[in-house]
Amino acid sequence: MTPLDARDEADLQAWIDGTMDDAASAVFERRLAADAGLRAATDLDDAVAASLRRTFVVPDLGAIVNAVKDADGGVVDGKGSATPFRPSWRVAAATLIVGFAVGMAIWTEPRDDGPLPPAGMATAEQIEFVACTDDGNALGCSLVEQIGQKLPLMTCKTPSSFTQATQANVGCGLNLRNPEALPLDGRPIDGVPDAMAFTARVDGRPVLLFIVHEQVDRRPELSHASGFRCFRRAIPPVVCYEITTFNEARLLGTIDRP
Question: What H or E segment, with its residue span, contains residue 186?
Answer without folding.
Answer: strand 184-188
